[in-house]
Structure formats: C-alpha cells, structure tokens
Amino acid sequence: MLLAHKIRFYPTSLQKEKLAQSFGNNRWYWNQLLANAKLPKDDRKQIRYSELKADNEWLKLAEAQGYANTEMHFRQAFKNMKANKKFRFPKFKSKHSKQSYTTCQPGKLVGKSLSLAKIGKIKLAQELRYDGRIKSVTISKNCADEYYCSFLVETQPTVLETTGAIIGLDMGLIDFISDSNGNKIPNPRIANENERVKKYQRLLARKQKGSNNRAKARVKLAKAYQRNTNKRKDFLHKLSKKYINENQIICIETLRVKNMMKNHNLARSFGYTAISKFIEMLRYKANMYGRQIIQVPTLYPSSQICNICQTKDKPKQLNIREWVCPTCGAILDRDYNAAMNILTAGIAEIACCQQ
C-alpha cells in the first residue's frame, strides 16, 4: 500500500538559493518538453537531458533524478489526457505559482533530518509517521513561501480493532455533519480569516505593479489564504479520523458536488465546506484502517422519507428544517431524519450484497 506524508521544513538562506535553482531548472525542462510537443509533428525532435546539459552547464546545478521525474510526469500528463476527457492539455509552468520537483533517490533519513542531493541536510518539522520503503520524495514551495517534503512510502495497512458500529452521515451547509446517533457537527466558521484575506487583497490592489512592496503584499495574501486552507484541512482530518476510529461501517450519500456548485447562490458555501474532500478522506482512511464505506445512490430521497413509517413526502425547500409526517404525525428534524434514512439504505445495501 502506498501512503504519502507531507512534512514542512525550514531551509537556510543558502539552501533556499539551491532550491530555487532546482525548481527553476526542472520548470525550464518541462517548458522545453511542452514547447517541443506543441510543434508540428514533422518539426518535433527528441529532447534528452543528457544532450541539453552539454550546451547548458547550469543544468548540472540540480539533481539529475529531478529531470527524469519531470519527463515521466510530462509523459503521464499526455496519457491521462488521452485516457480521460476531464484532463486538459498540459500548460507551461510559471515561476509565480507553486514550485516542485521529485527525486526517487533521497539521501539518508534519520529522525527529523533528511539529506538531499545538491541541497544538503534539511531539518523536518516532524518525523515520518509511516514505516516502509520510501519510493519518492517531492520537494515543493507554495505561494506563501512555505517549503514541504512529501514522502511516498510503501507500507502495510494498519487494521484497527473491530467495533461493529454502523453509522449514517448526512452532509449539509448549516451543520456540516448530522449523524444517525443524533450528533450535529457545525460547519467551521472562518469569518475572521476571510476578513484577513479581504484586508490583504485591498493592500495588494494599492501597490504598484512590479514593486517590492507588491511582492511582499502578495506573500501576505497567500499566507492568509493558506491559513484558511490549513484550518479547513485540520477540521476535516480530525473529524474523518474520529468517525473512522469509532465506526466499522459508515454510510454516506453519493453527492454530485460538481452539479451542486452550479447553483450560484450556494456555490461559495459548498466550496467552503469541502464536502468532496471530506468524502475522499473517509475513503482512503477506511482503506488504511480496515473500515467500510457504503455509498447510497445519488437519487435516494433521504430528506423526503419519514424514517419511522417510511412514508415518502413531497420535495422541500432548503429553509424547511423540520416537517410533520402526514401519515404518522411525527415531527422530524430534516438532517437527523436524512441520516437515519441513509443508515437504513446502507444496511439494505449490505444485506443485498451478502445474498
């Protein structure tokens, strides 16, 4: 099983210069490959690092493994584009966006210390949490000038103790999660962080283009955005791990988030909640720890069925949070009722698969 662990590190000033050289060299090599691929078929030529380094001595300042992986990623991008229409034609890389390169031959890793070719020994913020063979290490820098090492490790999955518990989850905008146990997890509110973003957007807009002050303001804005991202990821990771630890089987809806984002009145709220990211975390953590995820079909009317008498009512607007069953007269909380129905549908799906 392949698992990734992304760890921040803090390079010295000299190491930052060497990393900038490595990022720039690999970015240049990618752009050379893409420019060649855009030429007419008869004018294309085979580009090799071994041939380019003879005319460009500065290419030797970066690790050779990085160029090999850049070429492999470039070829994989074209394969993905041909195999799946959702992948677009590769783009040229810019020095103003995220920078990265990958090596398959990292140096010795001891605790929080890692040796990288052409860079030297770097100090990681934490130790690698997985035991196993390191397949590759990707060194990256985001727009907030933060440096990260992403380790791809081949390891064995850790199976948690069987709990026997099964739960249904209903995801929404007001409450992020309403589960069949009656718990409600409110959406993380990052209003203060959004105000911080607006403040730095105004400051950036006032700076003269090309000035050093504009560059500093851009980094401050990027850090504000990154702070939002980190808070949201922290919330999603802790919540997904909690449900994985406590439950053997988790039943969720199959949501078409792409279609939900077409609603321009709610698209921003859907984007902030990151529902699809949460579902992705549940899936890979279930594979890691021996849990099971059951997905209820998309068109299942979980909010329209009474979980007590199974009577199906008419569709309801989003502002209706409670409704009365016309058959049994029960007062139903919309989200809790939906979670109970998702649990019932998930149990039925398990029984159907076992027959």
Could you please describe the fold and organization of this structure?
The structure is a single chain. This protein is an alpha+beta fold. It has 2 domains: 2-154, no CATH class; 166-354, no CATH class. Helices cover 42% and strands 20% of the residues. It is built from 9 helices and 14 strands. The chain has a 5-stranded mixed beta sheet with strand order 10-9-8-11-12. Strands 1-7-6-2 form a 4-stranded antiparallel beta sheet. Strands 3-4-5 form a 3-stranded antiparallel beta sheet, with no helix packed on it. Strand 4 and strand 5 (120-123) form a beta hairpin. Helix 1 (13-37) packs across helix 3 and helix 5 packs across helix 8 (275-289). The two termini are 30 Å apart. The mean pLDDT is 89.
Q: What is the average of the pLDDT values?
A: 89
Structural category is alpha+beta
Number of helices: 9
What is the number of beta strands? 14
Report helical residue fraction.
Answer: 40-55%
Strand content: 15-25%
Q: What is the N-to-C succession of helices and strands?
A: EHHHEEEEEEEEEHHEHHHEEEH
Largest sheet: 5 strands, mixed
- Distance between the amino and carboxyl termini: 30 Å
Radius of gyration: 25 Å
Low-confidence stretches: none
Shape: elongated
Number of domains: 2
Strand order of the largest sheet: 10-9-8-11-12
Oligomeric state of the chains?
Answer: single chain
